[in-house]
Amino acid sequence: MSILHLVRSSQFNSSDFLQCIGVLTPGDQLVLLDDACYNLHHPLLIAAQEKLFPQKIAVVTSHAQARAVTLPETITGISMTELVHLTFNNDSVVTWQ
Amino acid sequence: MTEKQNKTVAIINSQAPFSSPGGKDALDTALIFGSYEQNIALFFMGDGVYQLIDKQNPELINQKNYLKTFSAFEFYDIEQVYVCAQSLKDRGLTDKFHIENTTLLEPAQFAQTLAGFQVIFRF
Amino acid sequence: MITTPPYSNLTATALDYVESALKAGFEVIGIFFYQEGVLHADSNLSIASDEFQAVAKWQQLHQQYQLPLHLCITAAEKRGLRDDITPTNINPLFTVSGLGELVELTDKADRVIQL
Questions:
Q1: Cβ contact (<8 Å) for A84 and C24?
Q2: pLDDT for position B4
Q3: I need a surface site. Which of B7, B73, C87, C115 has the fewest CB within 10 A?
Q4: Which residues in chain B show pLDDT less than 50?
Q5: Which domains does chain B have, with CATH numbers?
Q6: Is residue C59 part of a domain?
Q7: Is residue A83 within 8 Å of C17, Cβ to Cβ?
Q8: Torsion of CA B60, B66, B72, B75, to 10 degrees
């Protein structure tokens, strides 16, 4: 059973991302959107990368671009339509907001 | 567990009980799912564990004591209550709760148990 | 389930998600408005015309895809939205519902997303 984790808040402001990382299991998918784009440059991103395969971490491209947040090379940018499809590639969804 | 093939639903409680309406909203949601005989479980993590702590006095701050309703979980067939042991530890808390029949889980088990549910809400 | 208010950019994200799903051919069996999300149904809502119009967007999706918009009345009443006064201040676009509707939708749906 894999979970799609949607993180929507900045770790600089709330502990949602930290809590999410606490329950990640291999095979899960993590997507950063909204203010969670800022987490791309938070030290905790490494903790997420240690738990998941690189292709299992993504960010909604337009949300990062809107915030002038650059994508690290290891992170995949996706569209909202791709996010919709990820919803069905996993068994359940948790939103961390 | 009911005989009908209901979805398994988890509700994560992540907020401390009083300053945010999350705890009460989560409780209302859980009780409705319970009264419709759905297979529902509650997960307490982060500041959500503060909802379980014994000897709270919400009356002192003009707060309705909705935590008392937690003791009716069994009446609503809510039999799975999971608590993140790490969240307790981080906050210097022990499992002195105002309800019984909770299951303390270490992070890996907590994550694995959560992954077993088809629908997950978080408040 | 929508829990964010109409003036939040988080709601623009939710609308983008729902519209993308509909355009990709997925059936969205219902939207359930809970917590601050119920504020979408306030018929007195007035958001400056040069800002994002969340309600107009919900209306468009509702009309184009027959998307049901369910309002949790308990959460709505707490925020001043009333179906028991005349005239009501609940936008007729929304169906007055309760958490029981969320149970039914959850039971029927393949996936449930909280935004």
A1: yes
A2: 53
A3: C87
A4: 1-2
A5: 8-122 (3.40.1260.10)
A6: yes
A7: yes
A8: 160
Please tell me whether the overall predicted TM-score, pTM, comes out greater than 0.90 for this model: yes
Could you check whether the bond before residue C87 is cis, i.e. omega within 30 degrees of 0?
yes
State whether residue C84 sits within 8 Å of chain A by CB: no
Residues A67 and C36: their CA atoms lie apart, in Å, by 25
Taking residues C89-113, report their average pLDDT: 98
What pLDDT score was predicted for residue A40?
98
Which residues of chain B are within 8 Å of residue A15 when distances are taken between CB atoms? 46
pLDDT reported for residue C14:
98
Mutation to test the C interface, candidates A80, A92, A95, most C Cβ within 10 Å: A80
Q: Give catalytic residues of C, as residue numbers.
A: 72
Per-residue pLDDT tens over the stretch A63-73: 999 999 999 99
CATH of domain A3-96: 3.40.1260.10
Closest Cα partner for B48 from B64, B70, B33, B32? B70
For C52-80, the pLDDT digits (tens) are: 999 999 999 999 999 999 999 999 999 99
Q: What is the CATH number of the domain that holds C38?
A: 3.40.1260.10
Residue at C1 is within a domain: no
Cα(B52)–Cα(B96) distance, integer angstroms: 8
pLDDT of residue A30: 98
Which residues neighbour A35 within 8 Å (Cβ) at sequence distance 6 or greater?
A8, A9, A10, A13, A67
3-state helix, strand, coil in chain A (%, to 5): 40, 20, 35
The residues, any chain, with a CB within 8 Å of residue A72's CB and separated by 6 or more, are A40, A41, A45
C13-37 pLDDT, tens digit per residue, is 999 999 999 999 999 999 999 999 9
Other C-beta atoms closer than 10 Å to the C-beta of A46 total 10
Q: Give the SS3 label for residue C7.
A: coil
Give every CB contact of residue B39 below 8 A, 6+ residues apart in sequence. Answer: B1, B2, B6, B7, B8, B9
